[in-house]
C-alpha cells in the first residue's frame, strides 16, 4: 500500500465516521464557517480552560474533504494551547499550499490532506475548519467565509 492509498483511506474513514461530531455541552466558545464555493458549512464548539482546548466538537455538512479535515483537526487540537494551535495551523497551511515534505512529516495524520494542494478549490474545503477554529478562539461572533 503506498502513501496515497493510506492517505485516501484516512480521509474516507474520517468522512464516514467523523470524530468529535455533534454539539458540545459546556462549550464556552463557538464559531460558524462557510465555504460558498463548495457549499461546506461548519459550526465549531470549544471548551476552553486556562487557554487550553479541553474539548472540541463540530457540526455541519459539507464535502468529504471538509468533513475529514474537521474530524482530523478536532483530534489534533484537543488538549493544545492557543500558541500550539498557531504553530499547528502554520504547518497545516504550509502543507496545503506548498510542497514541503518536512512540514508534512511533522503533522501525523493531518498529512493525509497533503494531496489537496494539487486542487486549489479543495484547499478551501480543507482549511475551512481551521479558519472557523481561529474565529472561535478569537471569540468572533461574525461567521467566517473562505470568500
Ligand atoms: Zn468542500
What can you tell me about this protein's structure?
Helices cover 46% and strands 20% of the residues. The chain is an alpha+beta fold and 147 residues long. It has a single domain, classed as Sufe protein. Chain: A (Alpha-Beta Complex), CATH 3.90.1010.10. Strands 3-2-1-4 form a four-stranded mixed β-sheet, with helices on one face. The longest helix has 19 residues, at 120-138. It is globular, with a radius of gyration of 14 Å. The mean pLDDT is 92. The structure holds zinc ion. Zinc ion (ZN) binds next to helix 2.
What attributes characterize this protein structure?
binds zinc ion, 4-stranded mixed beta sheet, single chain, 147 residues, 4 strands, 20% strand, Sufe protein. Chain: A, alpha+beta, 46% helix
Amino acid at each position: 500500500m503506498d502513501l496515497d492509498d493510506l492517505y485516501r483511506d484516512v480521509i474516507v474513514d474520517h468522512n464516514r465516521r467523523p470524530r468529535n461530531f455533534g454539539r458540545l455541552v459546556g462549550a464556552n466558545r463557538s464559531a460558524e464557517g462557510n465555504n460558498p464555493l463548495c457549499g461546506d458549512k461548519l459550526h465549531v464548539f470549544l471548551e476552553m480552560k486556562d487557554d487550553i482546548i479541553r474539548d472540541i466538537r463540530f457540526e455541519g455538512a459539507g464535502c468529504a474533504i471538509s468533513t475529514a479535515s474537521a474530524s482530523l483537526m478536532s483530534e489534533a487540537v484537543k488538549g493544545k494551547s492557543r500558541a500550539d494551535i498557531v504553530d499547528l495551523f502554520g504547518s497545516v497551511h504550509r502543507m496545503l499550499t506548498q510542497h514541503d515534505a518536512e512540514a508534512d512529516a511533522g503533522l501525523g495524520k493531518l498529512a493525509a490532506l497533503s494531496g489537496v494542494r494539487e486542487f486549489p478549490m479543495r484547499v478551501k474545503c480543507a482549511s475551512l475548519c481551521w479558519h472557523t477554529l481561529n474565529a472561535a478562539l478569537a471569540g468572533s461572533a461574525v461567521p467566517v467565509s473562505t470568500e
